[in-house]
Design goal:
By secondary structure, this protein is mostly helical. It is 72% helix and 0% strand. Helix 2 crosses helix 5 and helix 6 runs antiparallel to helix 7.
Amino acid sequence: MAASRSEEVREKARSLLQQLAARAHLSSVDALFEMHAAKMVDQLQETVDQWSHSSPQRFVLDAVVSSAGISVVESLLDRVTAILQSCLEPERDAELRSGLFSLTSRLLLRLGESAHSERASRFAGDAVATMILPNMKWKAGRTAAAVRGTAVASLWAALQSNLLTGEQIRALAEPLQSPLNVTIEDDSQMTRLLTCRALALLYRGLTREQLHPLYPPLLKRLDDASNDVRMQVANAITAYLEAFDGQFEVPLYEAHLEAILRGLLIHLDDSEEPIRLAVLDVLKVAAALSPALLVKEVQAVRHKFKHPDLCDRLVQHVETIDPSMPTPIQE
């Protein structure tokens, strides 16, 4: 089932499983998995040190965790974790790791849809800490880059699944910071894009103290060669600002906010209209943190703009959230 890309072959395999369940006088394929899956996975684990990307055992594992009922899959998580930890060690076959990161991502998302147990949360935390993080470290070469990209995709899946508790996310923030600073600069556009998406999700679970030092790499990527990445950067900065929930402590961190506003204002006059409008939306979110500081920064640069109308629209927005603000802009 897992090895074939043909839907016809997969359907035939599902039909054979249904026939096998019927021959065993079981009510469903899920009952078949419930009876035999644990023993199958135990047998798979016996040979895990010899697996390569073409080993049939990895396709059997994929079929079990993809096709068994969610309660069966949850009961297997400790066994599956041990197998994945072994196969995803950085020294193992790169193609094997890429394939199993795909499985890990699908498993995380599936668990996120149906299971929010302590066991599922523990699996997600173990996946990030012991499987994903070691494979996000930079190594030269296309093969290493491909594995790095699949690891970042699995990180996004772990965060998207909502399986990680707030405590787990806060504990992972520091170990993730350096690897994410690397992958956001990756040669692969998709890796950079997925890093931005992962960051946007990560910010939601962090404390204000953890958030404050995280903005500089994002601002740099507003200069990315890809507009798709730049749009994702804008989304991530919005998530970053919203994560403070109005508690930015401007007097203490005014220099940080100034740097963010100045970095954004450069791209409010970008040559690409979609980027200008995306940055405008980000700046509207930033306005809530310190309307007076934003107006001050806008007034300092408006005369340099090719598109000063966006400065005016931004100041008009400030007036709607703080009518007491004196906001004249001089030509």
